[in-house]
Model the fold of this input.
Amino acid sequence: MELPTQKLVHTFGALADLGQEITDSSDVSEMVRTSLHLLLGALGIRGGAILEHMADGQVLKLVAARGIDEGFPEPLHIDDAARVALLNAGLSALSPERLTTDKPDLCALLEECKNAAGTFGIQLFVPMVVRGELVGAVLLGGKATGESFTGEECDIIFSMVRHIGVGIHTHRLLEQLEQRAEENRRLYEDLRTIYRQTVRAFAAAIDIKDKYTQGHSERVGKYSEIIAREMGWAEEEVEGIAIAGYLHDIGKLVVERDIINAPYRIDAKQSSELNRHPAAGFEILSPIHHPYTDIPLMAKYHHERLDGRGYPDGLTDKQIPLGAKIVSLADSFDAMTTDRPYKTRRSLEDVIVDFRFNTGKQFDCEVVIAFCRALLKEINGESKERRILKMLGKNYVEAEKIIPLLSELISELDCIQISSAASSV
Amino acid sequence: MAEPASLFVRSRCVGTAAVIYASDYLNKLSGERIERECKRQLECGCQTLVIDFRGTELVNSIGVSILLGVIDVAEKSGAQLIFSDVNTETIQLFEMLGLTRHVALAKDEDEALTLLNEFAAPPQSFGH
Done:
């Protein structure tokens, strides 16, 4: 007998709701619970349960139930023969009453379900098989009408059970994907940590070669990071510029130690030898696949000047990458504020005077402003950390002298920038 | 944190009977609230439950499943269950799915309560 129209409409509504639930729900247990409601409500079935076949392959675990007795065995153990029998049965309704001869391998399992299924008993046991994999099974009690299931109703049940099986299978795949993605994230983080540690080790190796500038590379990395962050760079770019700062002098590894450590002003020949280090650094860093862009270029151009009098290529303003301009200022600032073999460090007032004089010639205006702002924030206590002050050491910064100088320089450079921008328009 | 008032099911007690008012659309959220309220009333010793559907326009499959659960719980508790003020479409649905074999129907809440006093026997269909 064909299903009456009203029943068809009601069943289609349930199928549509089931599809939406399976697609939209991110909570698998909620999805399964709602799916069982929809299956039972579609055909007026008085009770039922959804069992999930667990990954170890030996148990069916109850994941949703309506009207099933509390004493239902959980989990249901299945042996290999029963598992194979369920796989072979595929999407078909197995009636516990008729199994003794049809499916002897499933007798014990179904008998266990039948005994535990409560007052209305189990009329159907439907395995959920998706792509040849046993996902679970659905147990169904009788209909509220007291009638037997028709062939068409069984077809509706198979269709809905298949939907539920696909939903569970898909959620499992998503969980596996998320686990793998999480593992990959962890591996990637580990690799980044190793990379950072390696870079720091390199920086230490560079600085060990120069006994007068120990810690220089690390400080340049930190100053560069502070400037980039003040300039509003994205966090990943900030990490990149820090790495560039750590490695900017890596080319010194190929320069003779005597030249690097000369306790006097070096001559022209030695100077030429020393000036090889940016290009040498580029050669060393280029073959490495860095997780950040342009690190070799930042090392190569950290001695370029805006006025074209720098080296190795004598680039001018726009030709110099912004990262290299940042590393350049960080490098110069550290050179001026640390003792060298042939001169003691300069006062911070002198350094600010140098900044004012050389902005636009050696240093980029925007970079100088960013550095001065970061320093001013630290002196004024507006920064969470006092990283620059810590690197400069105690008693070096005289706040009452420095604050007005920095403020004045910032506003002066701001004006220059504004007028420069206006004239370019 | 307490549930907002709108999430509560409206109900009232009349002697040993409890009247529970269903919402306009009986779906999972509202259905589960009704189921919880029915169980609570039965645990409190209520012998008769009237679920009033005067505000209910539509019952979906989840709603049917939940009502079957309420029927199951009521039967196990030995309590009588009456659905009142059910619209024609929903009655047809309940008849088609066999719910009316297990629950009595009344024209409205008053009729349900009156008939409850008259009949102590197992549920049967009234009105409609």
Remarks:
- The domain at 212-424 of chain A is CATH 1.10.3210.10 (Hypothetical protein af1432).
- Chain A has two domains: 5-179, 212-424.
